[in-house]
Specification:
Layout lengths: L1 E6 L6 H12 L2 E4 H10 L3 H10 L7 H15 L4 E5 L5 H13 L6 E6 L2 H14 L3 H4 L1 H15 L2 H7 L3 E5 L4 H17 L1
Parallel strand pairs: 1-3, 1-4, 2-3, 4-5
Helix pairs in contact: 1-10, 2-3, 4-5, 6-8
This protein binds adenosine-5'-diphosphate (ADP).
Length: 193
């Protein structure tokens, strides 16, 4: 299986690049944020619980994030593999995730980190708020908070995959297709070996 973690701060372009990856490599997209938003829209018990956190820019619990991912893997396996978008976001999530994939005799192929500077991220997220109706994008204060939480809690997840020799970083600035081709080069290089 080809299991890719697309990593990066809010606004890095994970959703856009995930879409292109699943098409090219025939993978299943698992976005924990997207699944949470569907649950919020449908007012499921999970959605009602999660909304309290998400609207204020906070993370849902590791237990909730892990349960979502486990369900999605279960639903879709067997398949060519997955693109994990917005997960894992904490080191405990990464640790438990290794165990979950192990149960399927599988593992992460690579974590690809999209590198984008903070000024660009803020601009992109404010622009996105005009097109999408994500409450967490509308207010500058909440955008800043999400970027801070990323800096404090999520950035370190890179180290977990660095130690496993599964970390690759890509410049997330510039042309979408150029970024995509850089991502594909990384993947094709790994698959060749
Ligand atoms: P973004 O990358 O722009 O923050 P996402 O769609 O990935 O957008 O996530 C939206 C929100 O959903 C996050 O701010 C967080 O509250 C929640 N969320 C998504 N994934 C996780 C996760 N793995 N752990 C905890 N909270 C999560």
């Amino acid at each position: 299986m080809l299991n890719i973690i697309l990593f990066g701060p809010p606004g890095a372009g994970k959703g856009t690049q995930s879409q292109k990856l699943i098409e090219k490599y025939g993978l299943v997209h698992i976005s924990t944020g997207e699944i949470l938003r569907i649950n919020i829209a449908e007012k499921t018990p999970l959605g009602i619980e999660a909304q309290k956190y998400i609207d204020h820019g906070n993370y849902v619990s590791d237990a909730i994030a892990l349960e979502i991912v486990m369900n999605e893997i279960n639903k879709n396996i067997p398949c060519n593999g997955f693109v994990f978008d917005g997960f894992p976001r904490t080191t405990p999530q990464a640790d438990e995730f290794t165990r979950i994939l192990g149960k399927y005799n599988s593992e992460i192929t690579v974590l690809i980190s999209l590198e984008v500077d903070e000024e660009t991220l803020v601009k992109r997220l404010s622009n996105r708020s005009e097109k999408s109706n994500r409450p967490d994008d509308t207010c500058d204060q909440i955008i800043k908070k999400r970027l801070t939480i990323y800096e404090n809690n999520t950035k370190i997840v890179k180290n977990y995959y660095k130690k496993l020799n599964k970390y690759q970083s890509i410049n997330g600035l510039g042309d979408i297709d150029k970024i995509f081709s850089d991502i594909c080069k990384v993947i094709d290089n790994i698959c060749k070996n």
